[in-house]
Q: What sequence folds into this?
């Protein structure tokens, strides 16, 4: 069972690798349209005609160019009116809500699909075949049709994004100026408050200095430094002239305590100012020098711990950002590869279209030169001119040499037209026969190769032992190859044989019929007509038969 599954997988992979050529679409023609807004230039194109052989399809497209130096958001829709009266409207844009166009940029391509909804393909189900317009015939004799009666477009809205961006930038600039002005005012107010605070502290320092004797006396008396002294609660620390100080009362007398532990008596005004700056007092009793020495390191430790946590968070953020960037780069790399492959394919199709278009224009120019020179003489039945005009019909992209040659053969009995028809139909017959023979030969070779591969790999598998357990041994590999390679080559051979049997299709049968009809009408025939004549010298009368061809 395992080797059968392996065989089926290999078989499916080989089938997926088979490719089928797809015939190209006919050239687009540009339709003149009224430009509804000077900011953009709209071009509409559609396939003027197409063959109904196999399946009838017809495309119509739009391109839009930005004529301004600003970025525009263009929202429009274009439509095709069909021969059966149906209107096929299609909005431009990947989501149908418009497309952003850079300055002087043109969106929409004349051939490749660009993913913005600039092209629509109609299938034969769009309209009943009875309503299709007949647009002549192509070289093979197939009738050409058109389901499209007219194409048009309608602008829904055009938004100037650059102007909108400029307005947003101006608004942002004004807001930034307002913020800067407000910050400047806040800074000036802060500086003013700091200046007032420094003035108050200076005054307090002077007061404290003037009462130094009292402070020393109080210190010598031991009132504030005594552990048994009655004290009020100690205020928080306030920075004065670069030094942290505290205030407290002892037996109702206000004191100020410096960072070095020294205590000085102060005034009620200084006590009030420092108390208000420090906020509500906390705790009771005096703060020991050991506690004061611990407070500063504790604050420093807290700051260091905060900085350490913030640094760790920043490192984690950077690591996550790097991981996200790697993931985005990996996804972007794969996406870019697919996008690049699609872009390369689109560019190659566009280059091929441009080359075909240039070749078509060159051939049309050469054909029109011949037409201008020989058309008048060909219309009078001149054989040389007819031969040149037949060549021009083959060169013209819109020419129909078969119909032209039939017309001249019927009108003037032109030998050049007759020979051209014979060569045309004979070439179809010869090419088809060669293709048919090649298909049959390929079929024989593929089937023989498939049979040979099958029997060879089968014989090799017979010499190999069975693998133990679920392991895949060489016997399974040979069997998978026998079924996969042999079956695939055999299938390709059968397909080639089927192509050989179906090669003589409608075009071939029509060519045989037309060639047979031409030859039957150009066979040499004889006829006799009785005639009376008179000899001029002897004046004798005679009777004879005239031979007619």
A:
């Amino acid at each position: 069972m395992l080797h059968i599954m392996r065989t089926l997988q290999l078989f499916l992979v080989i089938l997926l690798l088979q490719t089928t050529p797809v015939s190209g679409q006919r050239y687009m023609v540009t339709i003149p349209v009224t430009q509804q807004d000077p900011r953009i230039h709209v071009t509409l194109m559609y396939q003027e005609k197409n063959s109904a052989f196999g399946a009838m399809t017809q495309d119509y497209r739009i391109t839009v160019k930005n004529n301004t130096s600003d970025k525009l958001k263009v929202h429009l829709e274009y439509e095709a009116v069909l021969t059966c009266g149906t209107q096929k409207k299609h909005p431009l844009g990947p989501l149908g809500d418009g497309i952003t166009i850079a300055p002087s940029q043109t969106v929409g391509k004349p051939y490749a699909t660009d993913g913005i909804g600039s092209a629509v393909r109609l299938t034969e189900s769009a309209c009943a075949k009875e309503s299709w317009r007949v647009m002549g015939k192509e070289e093979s004799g197939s009738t050409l049709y058109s389901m499209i009666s007219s194409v048009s477009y309608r602008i829904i809205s055009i938004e100037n994004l650059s102007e909108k961006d400029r307005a947003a930038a101006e608004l942002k600039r004004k807001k930034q100026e307002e913020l800067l002005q407000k910050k400047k005012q806040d800074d000036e107010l802060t500086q003013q408050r700091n200046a007032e605070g420094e003035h108050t502290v200076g005054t307090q320092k002077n007061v404290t200095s003037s009462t130094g004797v009292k402070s020393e006396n109080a210190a010598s008396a031991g009132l504030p430094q005594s552990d048994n002294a009655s004290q009020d609660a100690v205020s928080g620390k306030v920075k004065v002239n670069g030094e942290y100080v505290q205030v407290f009362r002892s037996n109702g007398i206000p004191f100020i305590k410096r960072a070095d532990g020294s205590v000085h008596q102060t005034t009620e005004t200084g006590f009030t100012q420092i108390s208000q700056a420090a906020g509500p007092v906390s705790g009771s009793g005096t703060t020991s020098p050991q506690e004061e020495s611990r407070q500063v390191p504790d604050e420093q430790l807290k700051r260091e711990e905060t900085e350490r946590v913030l640094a760790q968070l920043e490192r984690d953020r950077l690591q996550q950002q790097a991981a996200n960037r790697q993931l985005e780069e990996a996804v972007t790399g794969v996406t870019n590869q697919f996008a690049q492959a699609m872009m390369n394919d689109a560019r190659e199709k566009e280059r091929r279209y441009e080359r075909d278009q240039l070749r078509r224009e060159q051939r049309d120019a050469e054909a029109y030169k011949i037409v201008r020179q020989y058309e008048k003489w060909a219309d009078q039945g001149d054989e040389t001119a007819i031969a040149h005009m037949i060549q021009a019909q083959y060169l013209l992209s819109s020419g129909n040499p078969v119909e032209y040659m039939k017309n001249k053969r019927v009108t003037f009995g032109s030998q050049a037209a007759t020979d051209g028809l014979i060569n045309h139909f004979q070439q179809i017959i010869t090419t088809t026969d060669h293709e048919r023979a090649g298909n049959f030969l390929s079929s024989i070779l593929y089937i023989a190769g498939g049979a040979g591969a099958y029997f060879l790999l089968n014989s090799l598998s017979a010499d190999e032992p069975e693998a133990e357990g679920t392991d895949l041994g060489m016997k399974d590999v040979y069997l998978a190859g026998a079924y996969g390679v042999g079956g695939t080559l055999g299938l390709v051979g059968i397909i080639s044989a089927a192509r050989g049997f179906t090669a003589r299709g409608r075009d071939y049968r029509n060519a045989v019929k037309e060639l047979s009809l031409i030859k039957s009408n150009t066979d040499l025939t004889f006829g006799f007509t009785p005639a009376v004549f008179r000899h001029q010298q002897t004046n004798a009368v005679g009777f004879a038969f005239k031979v007619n061809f």
